[in-house]
Design goal:
Elements lengths: L4 E5 L4 H12 L3 E6 L13 E4 L5 H10 L2 E6 L6 H6 L1 H21 L4 E7 L23 H19 L3 E7 L1 E3 L17 H9 L6 E4 L11 E2 L1 E3 H16 L5 E5 L5 E2 H12 L5 E4 L8 E2 L4 H7 L8 H17 L1
Parallel strand pairs: 1-2, 1-4, 2-3, 4-5, 5-6, 6-11, 7-10, 8-13, 9-14
Antiparallel strand pairs: 9-12
Helix pairs in contact: 1-7, 2-4, 4-5, 6-8, 6-10, 8-10
Length: 329
Amino acid sequence: MAGETILVVGGAGYIGSHMVLDLLQAGHEVVVLDNLSRGHRDLLVGGIFVEGDLGDAALLDRVFTQHRISAVMHFAAFSLVGESVSKPLDYYRNNVSNTVELLAAMARHRVRYFIFSSTAAIYGEPRAAKPLLENDPCLPTNPYGATKFAVERMLADNAAASDFRFVSLRYFNAAGADPSGRIGERHYPETHLIPLVLKVATGERESIQIFGTNYPTLDGTCIRDYVHVCDLVQAHLLALEQLFNGGGSAVYNLGNNRGYSVREVIEMAMRITKHPILAVEADRRPGDPAFLVADSNKVRRELGWQPRYESLETIIETAWNWHRCEALR
């Protein structure tokens, strides 16, 4: 259903900016709300931009009054695991309290549809090396995962009490960049493996650390499920269509149903960039699961989601295209 006006909260961030691009290409009007504390104005390719904080109830009322918002997509969250451990109240305030303000504003302005950017971190440390299902136990081991799970519970309670409907999308490891090279992943500080590895290839970093080499995996390093950012945002479009067509609330994993080890990522990056990448072995980080892979058959079955960029090679190629351009700017 094209032609709707979608509010994208946190739309100047990595995934949010890709979402804005896809919404515009799908024929929707887009309003972006972002305080730019972690987003970047230059990543926005269009839409109406409103700079401001999600916790500002008066600003939210102005946005909903001035624009005929049909649905909200929520990407505005602090997402650094280590930071969440050292600054838990910041994470509960930003990720949970501010989402309460957003949901309250939606209720005041009778906006019913909501798509939430959730995370595999809500599962905590899986008990077995098997792909995770949506109904597996959610036992987050850090405040970041706990805040995301708290919001999921809040969304379910809100839906049970009203005509509000939501889709929560639990990302595994978002990676890659728009194939055109227009937008990509830019974090300060950067904590994700693929961009850190590529920064070694561009000369911005001397080495990449491998945290733990004695895990019960084939090469001793952690295994993760990498999903391309363009595939992630495609799932959001499908979820939006489901809600507009009368679908009920739902929770879905977003991943490629297979994982790659840290060493496999480094080796693939060296092959693609044709640069040496120095890896330095370090101790394990507390709370790092050995194996974190999605079972995403539910979203494929119910929404018809079909990732276009499933291979690790393609994911890293698009990321490399972006990071190489970034290094030249």
